Amino acid sequence: MHIPFDNSYAALPDAFYTKLSPTSVKAPKLLAFNKYLAKVLGIEVDDIAEVSRVFSGNKIPQGAEPLAQLYAGHQFGNFNQQLGDGRAILLGEVIDTKGLRRDVQLKGSGRTPYSRGGDGRAWLGPVLREYVISEAMHALGIPTTRALAAVATGEDILREEGMLPGAVLTRVASSHLRVGTFEVFAHRGQPAELQTLTDYAIARHFPGATGPMDLLRGVCEKQAELVAAWMSVGFIHGVMNTDNCTISGETIDYGPCAFMDDFHMGRAFSSIDRQARYAYGNQPNMLMFNMAQLATALIQLFEDKDAALEEATAIIHAMPEQIEDAWLRRFAAKIGIAKPQVKDAELIQSFLDLMQKDGADFTNTFHALSGGSAQDRFTDRDAYQAWSQQHLARISNEPDPRAIMNSANPAVIPRNHRMEQMIKAAVAGDLAPFERLMTALATPYTPTDMDLAKPPAPSEIVPATFCGT
User: Fold this and answer.
1) Residue in 85, 243, 253, 273 annotated catalytic
2) C-alpha angle with apex 444: 234 to 413, nearest 5 degrees?
3) 262 among known catalytic residues
């Protein structure tokens, strides 16, 4: 097996990480391997058995420089001054066949100096959950980390539910630089390290940026687009802490995330988000909070901090309009409008209000809109018909509104009850539901398995999701 490593983060000063190897496991068994992604990464496989050894952590491939990254983070609004990779090891980086630099990381690969009492392991359920959802997000066209491999460890690990089968996920990302990576050096008063990190982030992700404030502006723009994309498919991240907020603008860390069934702006699923801080409709506000923390860290690089504060404040204050613009573009497409006008936001919001009032299924209602059967999703038919008349008048001059809607409204998403069923089956040794989901979710806009589009029966509803790793 050949992985064309080209490592750059390992060349940074020691303050950024701890170099160590993953902890070996008892009996690695390959559960899933993303052959297409491997090809894009330039990874050559001549022995499939070696895939399980490498991506379980039992064999360090040539050229790897394994390390655990340091970062801090605001978690549910409270600052934790040191977090870091407590169960993950960055094997290294590759330059893929498209010329993009990518991290290759093992998740669930054993204890590190940042484990804070944890065992450094992951159990099978969350590993397969992240595998499925991250690949589904990619198929939906939303920036995300990717899943390269899932390997069972042959070892059980202790969790609240008891002893559970262990597994390791191999995650691929544009990088694992987070807002929290900047926070840790700003909090420690280490301007040299903070400057080095800023220069590295600019070179890697924003080569046209002219300095820290330009970096901030670029990150804000990418994150504004990302949160609008999440909302357009009914996705709720669940833990939008600053250590789960990337500089690259990719979705990362699929812990207690969920896709909504019935629509509600206040919908939250995370079992640890008791105040619904990261509810569906609050995600734009939480994004701005995260970007404000990045701004606060970057201000430390300037001698004239008052001027830097003024510029950073202007960048953060521009975010509501950026998010609204991105949201309008996404949701206008969902109702068949290619080039939205500001007034279209009212039409969209009134449709969402109807959905919330009736508890309509988010995904299925939008998908039915293009097929002309959305009225069947509502109990208040009169209210829907009144809205529909406005909608039809608005899209009457669009060249092909149905095509626009079809490209913006997936038929199949990774529904929570299906994920739970898949995990339960996998624990019992049956990967067929996992493979079925992977096949269906690869083409969410041109579905092949409409049975997976059905919302849960009352007995199947999943009211809360868990980190669980």
Assistant:
1) 243
2) 35
3) no
